[in-house]
Design a protein that fits this description.
Helix content: over 70%
Strand content: under 5%
Distance between the termini: 88 Å
Number of strands: 0
Amino acid sequence: MSDRSAQAQWERYTQRPLLALAVAFAVAYAVPIVDNPASPVLAVVCTATEWAVWAAFAVDYLIRLALSPRRRQFVRTHWMDLGAVVLPLLQPLRLLRLLRLLRLLRMVSTLLLVGRRARMASQIRLTTYVAGAVVGLLMFGSLAVLSVERDSPNGNIRTLGDAVWWSFTTMTTVGYGDHAPTTGLGRMIAVGLMLSGIALLGVVTANIAAWFIARFEKDDVEERRQTEAIASLAEEVRLLRTEVARLADEREQQRS
């Protein structure tokens, strides 16, 4: 078995378990934020879960790196995975959370698309990816900004409802201004959410336009086919009438 096939087999076998771990990480990340203040036992359990998931993804990254036939290219193309493994060692958990949430979004989208081997139409794949990214960014952006803004002295994002409303208006680039982050990290989250929202809205708009264009083109093709079929049938009827008329003339000539 080649290294490439071994790597693909490893990724295929570990895709669903890693997704389950990523979901467990998301739950461990969200519970202390929603249930604030969390009990000491719950906080310890959630923190332990986060580090356990980090360890699992670190092992997965190292194994995939070892199985890759082109390791330098693997590192360049999987920079987000590398950052999620290395950065938490430099600044515990906070950067891990943000990067791991991005990894979770990518894994959910990958699973929904059934990997690169998905045989759905490209527009369906794109719609599924965008829908998953929108929901994920909205949910985790709300949790992230709430976690850093809730205790800010000058902050006005105090509840989950405030955070969801802020995330929604930020992603859609409406920005009413009734809620806004005041901390440095909160503003970094806002910048990321703004850029993501603009990109996703562009993809959504382009996808909807492409769907309508494809639909109209399909209708035009069907209409042309029907027109061609009607023309062909009319030509056959005309030829049949001509043949009938010729046979009738021959019969009249034979009688005369």
